[in-house]
Amino acid sequence: xxxxxxxxxxxxxxxxxxxxxxxxxxxxxxxxxxxxxxxxxxxxxxxxxxxxxxxxxxxxxxxxxxxxxxxxxxxxxxxxxxxxxxxxxxxxxxxxxxxxxxxxxxxxxxxxxxxxxxxxxxxxxxxxxxxxxxxxxxxxxxxxxxxxxxxxxxxxxxxxxxxxxxxxxxxxxxxxxxxxxxxxxxxxxxxxx
Length: 193
Known about the structure:
Blueprint: H1 3-11, E1 17-18, H2 25-36, E2 47-52, H3 55-72, H4 76-79, H5 83-88, E3 91-97, H6 100-106, H7 113-137, E4 140-145, H8 152-159, E5 164-176, H9 186-189
Antiparallel strand pairs: 1-5, 2-3, 3-5, 4-5
């Protein structure tokens, strides 16, 4: 494996605050391209990415998400880390599960439905990781947020989307760099048989 890939993986951390600076369209295209090259399930690509780059719309969405999350009153450690990246992002990408593979399998075996849904989420998560790593390689900070899932119905209504929201990704040029958590040693995370 090329050393620069592992170095990039180790360097990438969640960015919580971004500069007020546009991300060039060719960078956005590369980030999205990395996502669509994530692992597909039997050639089915169960994702749809909704890209929001209009600042007014980003503020409207982030204000709505923050308001909805506050009303649901989750523990502070869930809510508060989400506020800075949502409110300062220059680009939001909403990752959706289209359910295409699930719908195909339903026709054959309903018992497989739950396992197939997990398979779809796994593929979308891999696509998201690709996007975060390419953003990092371009000098763009990112943050993968799940807290907006507390209000996914409201988000879907605002975006006019009828799929299952998996994650919201925030992007922008770094105002401050995130810090990586120290990783457990391999001996505590890996079991060889």
